């Protein structure tokens, strides 16, 4: 066990939050135990998808599931399920969980908190002698972060049958290994991976607890918040073609400078989201300049615009505005423009009825309900294209994530579990 993490979690824990079967020390111990697997020199976590470290963390979670009396299975994509039978096992199950893989030097809460929280609900029921109406399953999805193949949420996509297997088999990982080599080393096969698809009629709802990875809850001084929707990204690849030339001998009036045009668009991108909604965002985070010489006017510039919103209509409106601005900028400039849409994932709005239920569960814990969008993708996003989903955020210190400094206090984590428990019990009757 990571004694330092366990000590830090317990140091300021308010034991009054250990109640109704939810045990704060058990939560801290489990977070600390997983944190020992793939511990980096910087004090972070390295458990990339389909690695021995991710597999070892899943094995640890499976041991907890078995100790809690769950029926445990692992599919060909490495997704782990622990099922608690309900009073009526003919009803579709409530699915709850997240992932245990990390970025190469991540923190100890991203994903893991969702898994530990989902399992703690079962242990609390066990102590209280509560049997849910319908089955409840804890899930650990494989390779959510995408650090292995630069293509995330692999496990949840496999469960849903949303993977193009020809594309998947063509992937190579960060070490140059093929997907088939990686999945074989993991202990599965391509054939078993393909058979991971599940009949989603067996699932009534998916709930994911996750750290916020932002500062809004911290600003509001609240331990938990309700996710109103998960933003769906569009990625536009824009290439501006101009005319390379000597920086000293080409007059300013005779230049066809694609970098100048691109820089105009970048400024527009920063201002446009507020014109469509208060949840829309747009980012230029990657650019290639050619020939990229200090004393050369560029001949070609490619930039990538990441556009997100939780409502598809306003997001697509923003996409159109950015396209229009780019075309307007190059008009009569001598610069040509080529636009490709590299990615288009539909957003997942959380149903109002579920947001209302979550508000009741949060209020029941004496916490003021706060609603916010999720700009980042989570396993709940692909799952939400098939069944209803809900998400609960737990406060992140300084908004830091994907970093060894990632931190959520045990007080906040345990309050999140109390909300989750109350909410799942309400869902059981829906």
UniProtKB/TrEMBL annotation:
Keyword Ribonucleoprotein listed: no
InterPro entries (UniProt xref): Amidase_Cbmase, Bact_exopeptidase_dim_dom, Peptidase_M20, Peptidase_M20_dimer
Residues in Peptidase M20 dimerisation domain copies: 235-328
Keywords carried by this UniProt record: Hydrolase, Metal-binding, Zinc
Cofactor: record remark: Binds 2 Zn(2+) ions per subunit.
Binding site for Zn(2+) 2: 110, 145, 402
Protein name per the record: N-carbamoyl-L-amino acid amidohydrolase
Residues at which Zn(2+) 1 binds: 99, 110, 210
Cofactor(s) the record lists: Zn(2+)
NCBIfam families: hydantase, PRK09290.1-5
GO molecular function per UniProt: hydrolase activity, acting on carbon-nitrogen (but not peptide) bonds, in linear amidines; metal ion binding
Family: Belongs to the peptidase M20 family.
Pfam family, one: M20_dimer
